[in-house]
Amino acid sequence: MVNTDRYVVDRSSYDSLCSHYLLQQANDETISYREQKKRRHLSFLLHGFEIDRKKVLNQSKRTVSPTQFLRTLGKLPRKVKAKPERILEAPSIINDFYTSGLDWGYHDTLAVALDTSVYTWNTKTNKTQLLVEYPTYDNAYISCVAWKPRTTDLAVTNTCTEYIDLWHEQEERLIQKLRTHMHQVIAMCWNGNLLSCGTIGGNILHYDVRTHSDYPTAITREGDVVCGLKWSPNGRYLASGSNNTVKIWDFRQLDAKRPQVNNQCHLSAVKAIAWCPWEPTLLATGGGICDQTVRLWNSMNGKEKCHVKTDSQVTSILWSEQYRELVTSHGKQDCSLKMWEYPRLHLIEELKIHQERILSAVLSPDQTCVAAASADETISIWNCFPRDKKRKARQVGSGSSLEFAMFNTIR
């Protein structure tokens, strides 16, 4: 605990040269009145004020407490709300580490996969709608949803079909079907008009939706279960996560037999992958239950920059460009969100409200809020990164409206 009874000097108006001069002349009584008048006149011409009237320490301003002083230097962590802004009920959500049934579109709409149905919820209008409902088969469920950037098109994968469906959310209609050749897709990400899909069979299927062809335009042979997939912000490199391994692929050589980088840095499946928004070559990855580690490393040479032991399964990683921080979501054992300071990876805050593991977490379009889907059939929304006008980082997207009641249901 920091005491606030100490006086901290405000040195913003402190002039060391003038103060030194005044201290040296304090005991000099031999200077005549005429000489003093001459010095005051020269001081006014040189400095704009009479130096004899200058104070050694200026206490005219309100003093700053040690707590405030340390916070301005970045020595104290900022305060984060310990309670979510909202909690949504999500009945029948699939409790599977390899699923990615939550995504937040640029138009402030959450897409949530609940068993064999996909629901959307608009954070501004508070409107919930059923977008698609597939027939119920044995062990069939929706494994992944992904919004196409800056559109209202949503890609949906179902374990009971051999297609990826592309839906127009506003018109509520199916606009395209992409053939997967019976490969079960468990990870998806967009790079402009290119949709990349990771499969259990160890392939990454790439579809250019502009061609209106239902066959992949390229296939990357990853070789193992692809549970994590993320394109770099510049669209040049693709990071794929599998058992114990993270691989980097070049956009210009998607059908290459070997990746640019093959980094066996974890001890279990790597689902959590996130590129740093302001450092194009910096990649953050998180391991599963046998690893429980978040690692930051250079994607060009595979060299690790730093790592932290989280003591829990890592299911998602999110970057905040404004605050220069990371958020990680966790399964067993903690079932919480953890906020980390970059680059030292010091724990800022642990946000815990869920009773079961968090399956995935996504960032709002304006990068202020985090939505976390849990196996306890709830989705929590946290205001982790409130807008701060004093920060210089660029803010992306439109504001997210979260001024509403505490509880709501998706369906």
TrEMBL record:
Record SUPFAM superfamilies: WD40 repeat-like
Pfam families: WD40_CDC20-Fz (PF24807)
Residue windows of the WD repeats: 351-383
GO molecular function, one term: anaphase-promoting complex binding
UniProt keyword annotation of Transferase present: no
Record flagged with keyword Cell division: yes
CDC20/Fizzy WD40 domain boundaries: 88-382
InterPro entries reported in the protein's UniProt record: Cdc20/Fizzy, WD40/YVTN_repeat-like_dom_sf, WD40_CDC20-Fz, WD40_repeat_dom_sf, WD40_rpt
Keyword vocabulary terms for this entry: Cell cycle, Cell division, Mitosis, Repeat, WD repeat
Signal peptide: none
Biological process, per Gene Ontology: anaphase-promoting complex-dependent catabolic process; cell division; positive regulation of anaphase-promoting complex-dependent catabolic process
Gene Ontology CC annotation, any one: anaphase-promoting complex
Family, similarity comment: Belongs to the WD repeat CDC20/Fizzy family.
PANTHER family named in the record: CELL DIVISION CYCLE 20 CDC20 FIZZY -RELATED, FI02843P
Protein name (record): Cell division cycle protein 20 homolog
Organism field: Diaphorina citri (Asian citrus psyllid)
